[in-house]
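Lab notes, practical 5.
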Amino acid sequence: MGETILVAGGAGYIGAHTCLRLAEAGFTPVVYDNLSNGWESFVQWGPLEVGDIGDAARLDAAFAKYRPVAVIHFAAFIEVGFSVAEPGAFYANNVGGTITLIEAARRAGVDKLVFSSTCATYGAPVYVPMDEKHPQAPLNPYGRSKLMVEQILEDLARYKDFRSVALRYFNAAGADPEGRIGEKHEPETHAIPLAIAAARGERDKFMLFGSDYDTRDGTCVRDYIHVLDLADAHVQALKWLLDGKESTVFNLGTGTGTTVRELVGAIERRSNRPFPLELADRRDGDAPSLVADNSKAREGLGWMPRYTLDEIIDHAWAWHANGALTLKR
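Output from the prediction step:
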């Protein structure tokens, strides 16, 4: 096998799909994960080291054992509601844990990191589609925690020659087409799994938060990007750093927005039946429209999203009908 990459949070949704793509590209992914939100069965393409990113001694041992050439960092809390309810816990893990991870990497002589960031660092859109120069004014502690890490990485690049690529995702969706891994969160808060569960009769309804936005049908617009397209971008970002290029940031989205009602319609077509909707008030912090300008990633990384919304839904549907059912804690 090729060079070893330490993948913090590699047993989670996007991390596991990235390990799949890393292995296909000839790398050896070593998953470092505390399994609080990840799944041991998702670790299929390299060894698993169970540990927390806040545990410096455990990290030092993992770096000494595997001698990775770079780190890809997914290990973070992601639930926005939890970030509002418990901001201290969010910052301790997402910011404090990241600092501990980075310092362990530096002690081991590793100076390259690909960081899982988010479009939530932008906050409410000033213009759409949003490029990397869009103002960053997060609406919640989740987005602020990611922005803080981006700022830390900027300082490390400037003062310590520690290079990184921050990847600002829009809405990750879909699953491995072969059904080996997919999306399952506890609790589940993402629209596509929730809508599929309603269409399959596993939930009694799908909640539609806000129907009076200034959009084409009154519901929020989001940019759904296939998880394997995200995984491909991580591999390209890793190669960017291994080629000696400078620290930077890239948006990852398709550049096409889909309203929640359009998403529901697409899932109803896939299921061949409607499912109950319940209209609810807007949620605090939900922007009317979040759509990526992905031109920088296309030009810089040579990256292009390949999967359509219908393919995203097909792959997610197959996963939730089969693979997701077997996951147990």
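Observations recorded by the TA: The two ends are 31 Å apart (CA to CA). Residues 191-222+255-326 form a domain with the UDP-galactose 4-epimerase; domain 1 fold (CATH 3.90.25.10).
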